[in-house]
Amino acid sequence: MVFKTPAMRVRVQKGMAGVPAWRVVCHWAHASQQVRQTPVLDRTLVGRGFAGDALRCEFQGKPSRLALEFVPRASSGKSHAAHCASFEHHPQEDTMAMLGPILQFLGNQHDTWGVSLLLIAAPGEPKPTVQCSPPAQATAPTDSPVPGLPGSTAWRVDIAVPQSSAAIAIDYQCNGQAHRFQVPPKGSAPSLGYVSCNGFSDLRVKKSLKEPQALWLRLARLHQQIDRVDSTTYGPLHLLLMGGDQIYSDDMWTALPELLDWTELPWTQRIRAPFTATLQAALQTHYAQLYIDHWGLPEQAAMLASVPAVMMWDDHDIIDGWGSHPTDLHESPVFQGIYAAASAAFELFQRQMIHGTRPPATLPAQDHHNSGYRFGTTGLLVLDMRSERSPRHGDTSATGGQLFAEQVMSETSWRAVYRWLDEQASETGDMKHLYVMSSIPVVHPSFELLEKMLGVFPGQQELEDDLRDHWTSPPHKAERLRLIHRLLKASETGTRVTILSGDVHVAAVGVIESDRSDAKDNARIVNQLTSSGVVHPPPLGVALFFLEQACKQVETIDRGITGAMYEFPTTSHRMIGCRNMMTIQPDAPGKGDRIWVNWWAEGEPHPYTKVIHPVT
Hints:
By secondary structure, this protein is of the alpha+beta class. It is built from 13 helices and 31 strands. It has an 8-stranded mixed β-sheet, covered by helices on one side. Strands 20-19-18-29-30-31 form a 6-stranded mixed β-sheet, with no helix packed on it. Strand 29 (580-586) and strand 30 form a beta hairpin. Helix 1 (214-223) packs parallel to helix 6 (298-304) and helix 5 (277-295) runs parallel beside helix 8 (333-350).
C-alpha cells in the first residue's frame, strides 16, 4: 500500500543561499526499523526557487519519521555543509486519489442538474467507484492520462439529477468516501459562492498570514450553515464560481532549471530559443503538481468535493500578465510552449475535458471556453479573457512609445457571446438576472497616464504587463466599449446585468450608468461586484491609498455613459483592502426577485451586504 507525505515547503536556511543547486534526499524509518535512505525522492532544486517548491514522498509501508537532507551538487564548485529539515507527522493511507473528487457544473437542461466529477488516481490504481443516492444517476468512468504525471490517470464521471419542486441533497460515495452536494428546486436561481486569486504571487507574502486558508474554512461553515448572523443563514451553496487565478504558477521561473537558464539569456537569444522536449515535460509536471498542491489542501478539497464549480482562468493560471507582454516575447517558442502546457492543465483540471470534449455549456461557433448557462430566470455568461489575449504586431517606437495591444477576445468569440445574449432575449424573454464573469474588472480606476509614462520605456518597467492587462488600458477601450453597450442593451430589455470580477486583490462595487436611451431609470445601470482574493493578500497600504483616491474620479466611458466606483456598503471607502469572498443568494420563493450579495472580509464577523433589484 502506498502512503504519501503532506506537501512540504522548505524555508531557506542560513548558509544555503550561496549554493546554486541542491540535491534532495529523503530519509525515513518504519516505527520499529532503522533509518533508511531512499531514492524515491532525489530532486535538484536550483537557486532560490527551492524555497517554494512543494515536496512529496511516497513509501511502501507506513513511515513514522521523515527527514529531508539537502546535499550540495558537486557541480556547484564550492564546499558546503548539508542541511536537514525534519518533519514529524502521521501519514494517511492513500485511497487511490492523488486529487479529488472535484465537482464541476455542466449545466441545467430540461430540468436536469448536470455535474461532472474529476479524480486523479496514482499509477497502478484501479478504476474508481462512484455511487450516488437517488434520483441522481452516474455514468461509467471515462479516463485519460495526466500530462506531466506518468502512469497516473484522470477519471471523469458525469452525474445527472432530475430536479423537483424542492431542493435535493445528493449523497455520493467516491472510492468509499462519503460526500454531498446540493441541487436547487426546479426553475429557481442557485445560491452562489464566488472566489478568485487562490494563491500567492510571491511566497514571501505568505509569511505574513497566520491562516492562509481561513476564508476557505469560513466558506465551508457558511455552506454548512454553521456560521450565521443572528438567525440568517447563507447556505447551502449550489454553485461555486471561481473567477481566475485558481493556481499561481509564478515560481516556475526559478523552480525549473531550464527555464531559469532561459531567463538569463540575452533578449535576442531568448525570443529565438527552441522549446525543448525536456522543458515541455518539466512544465507539464509543474502545472499538474500545482493543481494537486493547491486543491489538495484539506480546506479547499472539502469545498471542491461539495459544491460544483464553474471556473475560468486568468493570467496566473498561465503566467503573470499572459497576453500583455511584448509581441516578440509573447510569440517566442518558449512562451508559446508555456501556454500550451498551461492550457492542457487548465482543460483537464478546471474544465474536466477528457479527450478534448468540451463541457456542454461551451458556446458554439468559437474555439475556446466562453460559456453560457441558464437556470430559470437567471443566466450566467462566462468570458474566456486569456485564451486569445495577445499584443498587436507593430513597432511601438513609431507610436511615441505608447503601449499598444492587443485583443482580449477575437471577433469570432465576441460574435458567439453576442449571439448567446440575443438568443436569451428572443427565445424566452424572461431572463431577469444575468451574471457576467469577467476575470478583470470592467470598471476600475484608470492608470492611463501612468501607463503612457511607462510606455516610453517598453519592457523596462515591472508593472507594465499588469497595467496593460486591465480593461481600462487604452488599447482595450474600444473592445471594452462594445461590451458595455451590449450589456446596457440587455439591461434595457428587462434583464438586470451584474458583472462579477476579481484579480485586483480588493473588494469593490462599480456601476456603469447610461442616460442615452428612453429605457426606465433603473434599466440604465449595470453593477459590478469585485471580490479578490480568497488567499492572496491585499495591496500594501500606500497602494490602497492611491487606489482610494483614484476611485473618486468618475470616468466618462462614452457620450452619456459613465463608470464610477461607489462607496462600499456601510462604509465611506470604495475599496476594502483585506482578503475576501462573496456569497450571492436570490430572494426566498415568493419574496421577490432581488439578489442579496454578501462580501465576507477576513477577520470581520458580519458581511458587507448589497441588494440588487430587478429591472422594473
